[in-house]
Amino acid sequence: MANYIKRRAPEVAGSLAAELQMAASEVRFYREIAPEIGVRVPECYRAELTDEGSLLELEDLSAWRPGAEPAAAASLLRSMHDQWTGRAHVRWPWLRGISAGDELVARLYDGAWPKLAARSDMSAPVREFGARLVGKVRQVEAQLLNAGPLTLAHGDASGPNLRTAPDGEIALLDWEDVSAAPGVMDLTWHLVSSVEPARWSEALDAYGPSDGLLETLPSSMVQGYLSMSDWPEGSAEAVGFDARLAAAVAML
Description:
By secondary structure, this protein is α+β, with helices and mostly antiparallel strands. It has one domain: Aminoglycoside 3'-phosphotransferase, Chain: A, domain 2. It has eleven helices and eight strands. The strands form three sheets. It has a three-stranded antiparallel beta sheet with strand order 1-3-2, covered by helices on one side. Strands 4-6-7 form a three-stranded antiparallel beta sheet, with helices on one face. It starts with a strand and ends with a helix. The mean pLDDT is about 95. It comes from Kribbella antibiotica.
């Protein structure tokens, strides 16, 4: 079977990808962290970063089932977080910090909100909470500083970045957002991005103690609103985000 080739052109100056050095972070992840991470990730056969962009040659896991059961995904995240609590940022000091990109994300959110607020597929509680975030995204992101000890965080533990093997093994893909952050941040984004509200309790129970959840949830919701804005009005994806954002509002 052919390997999976992931190429990225040089990042556009001023973009979030450039601000967060996503390509460089993923290349360094596969070179330095993947060999000892302790959870399943694609095997890496080549990881290069040049003036022409980045190139990764990875194990092809496309035959595995996309996504993962909520409890299984939460357990995997917990295992990784426990292993690297208090250690990841020391072992790899180049890992992105909590505040990276906050100003740009705040501008993106405030700029996107007028069109988001006008959507007919946004429920009233979600619209009301979203309006309260305008002008306050940097404050929301600052709450992450109080959400718990730093560990190795995937940064985008959504369903599309998970694969489940026939035997149930789960792999985490796409490490562009790897960072040193409170682990519960991965859990809240997994819920907001990918888990139907009726099954949130499964993930929460499987993850175990989730101190800091209420501090990280608003940050994940900011990303949820921005993700919803990428989908056509009334689409299944947009409706799903609204339902999950509503569940998050109810938790707060």
